[in-house]
Amino acid sequence: MSHRWNIGRMVARAAVAAAMVAVTTVVAGCSGESTVSRRYPCHFTFHTEWHPTSMIVTALNSYNYYVNIAMTTYRGAYVVNSSDAKGTKEPITLSNELENLAYSGGIYLGAGGAYGSIIVGRTNFNGIVAWDGQCPNCATGYTSSYQLKWTDNATVVKCSNCGRTYSLETGAILSGNKGDRLMQYIVSYVPNGVLGIGN
C-alpha cells in the first residue's frame, strides 16, 4: 500500500512540475517580450529526490556553479550526463519507470535535439537559469556542432566557431560580434522534488 502511495505521490509531483512549466510559459508569453527561446523544443525532467547528491542538485543550490546536461541511452534506460567547468563528469542512469517515462516521446534538448545539451545553474541575481548548450548565432538548424565550451571563468562559455563569449549570469554576449543572447528555457524546481526545464 505505501509503495503505491509513494508512486502516486511522485506522479503528482511530476504533474505539478509540468503544470508549473506550462503556466510559466503562458504567463511569460502574455507579459510582452519573452526571453524564453522557442526556436527549438526543449523538455528535461529530473527527480532530485532520487539523486540528492548529484551535480545537478549542487548547481540548483549553489551560486555561480553550472552544469552542462546531455542525455544518452544505455541498455534501454536513459542516462543523464552532467559535466562542469572543472571537467568533472557524472553519468546518472534513470533506473525506474517514472523517470524513464518522461522521455518516452523522445529527447528534446534544444538546438541539438536528442544530441543537444542545456546549461543549468543558480545566478547571483536571476535565480536558477537554463540555457541551450549550442551557440545561438551559429546553430541554424538541429545540430550539435556548435557546442559552447567553458572558459577559464566558470560563469562564461565560448563558441569555438564564431569566438563569441557569453555570460551564464545573464545570457548576454560578453565579447565578439553582435548577435543573439543565449537561448533561455523556463525552469521549474521543487526542492527535493522535480526539476522541469522547457519552453
UniProtKB/TrEMBL annotation:
Keyword Signal: yes
GO molecular function annotation: 2 iron, 2 sulfur cluster binding
SUPFAM superfamilies: ISP domain
Domain of life: Bacteria
UniProt keyword terms in alphabetical order: Signal
Signal peptide (UniProt feature, chain positions): 1-28
InterPro entries: Rieske_2Fe-2S_sf
Metal-binding as UniProt keyword: no
Protein name: Lipoprotein
